Amino acid sequence: MSLYLTWLDLNSWLVELDNQRILIDPWLVGPMTFGLPAWLLQLTRLTPRPCPESIDLILLSQGLPDHTHPPSLQQLDPQIPLLCPPSALETVQKLGFHQISVLHHGETYALGNIQIQATLGSPIGPLRQENGYVLQSPASGCSLYYEPHGYHDPALSNFAPIDVVITPISDVHVPLLGTIIAGKTQGLELVTAVQPQVIVPTAQPGEIQATGLLARLLQGLDMGDTLEPDLAQLPNPPQVLHLTPGQRQEIALRHKPALSL
User: Is residue 255 part of a domain?
Assistant: First the structure.
């Protein structure tokens, strides 16, 4: 089986599985403001990188601008198929994408041999819950799970084991907003449920610079207080694989029989 991951910083990923190239939550150009005024918070890339080429699918997990980032999406061919939660639909329609598939929780989408199922993701306010995704390749027997805020569907155990999990491993608490990333708080439960071989951290500060009034708060966060010490206590702990932004990494997995879906 062949699985390659490229971390494009923050929560932006290129997944290569079964010769399919899937671009997740792309932040490729321009600043990131999270929908806030730039004077309050803005992230800027320290290392510009080219947009990935030959993309087979754009996969969006949330409708918020740090996951559905209009300046980045405008750099991509609007003919590329795009998969998103209902919260992102209006934005991507305005950007002119022609092949949009909206996935509600529990629904599936086929990309070649890969089955993509939407799971419950991060809660945004009391009435909205975004998407996580499970990607399964029956041909290779490989499976991958992605959710960027650490809020996981209780039904994920139905997919166990999942080979690779892309998840935060730290918590982020913001005054007035509460816990916006629950990687450490929820992570051990996730690992127990899906028994991954490899955990790849997301929502990490890569090669970026934060400016604005909230920047000091973010710079004071203890991102070193992670899930890793708890994982080390498990009988068969997963490998935690820290990637370098921009570097393509082959993910080595133990051989498994092909999935039967």
Answer: no
Q: How confident is the model at residue 127 (pLDDT cuts 50, 70, 90)?
A: confident
Phi, psi of 250 (to 5 degrees): -75, 135
Q: How confident is the model at residue 207 (pLDDT cuts 50, 70, 90)?
A: confident
Query: Of 145, 140, 169, whose CA–CA distance to 254 is shortest?
Result: 140
Residue 205, in any domain of the structure: yes
| Alpha carbons 153 and 126: distance in angstroms, whole number | 16
Instruction: Express each pLDDT in 149-189 by its tens digit.
Output: 999 999 999 999 999 999 999 888 766 566 788 888 999 99
Q: Could you tell me the CATH number of the domain that includes residue 49?
A: 3.60.15.10
Please count the structural domains in the chain.
1
The token pair that represents 45 in the structure block: 């890339």
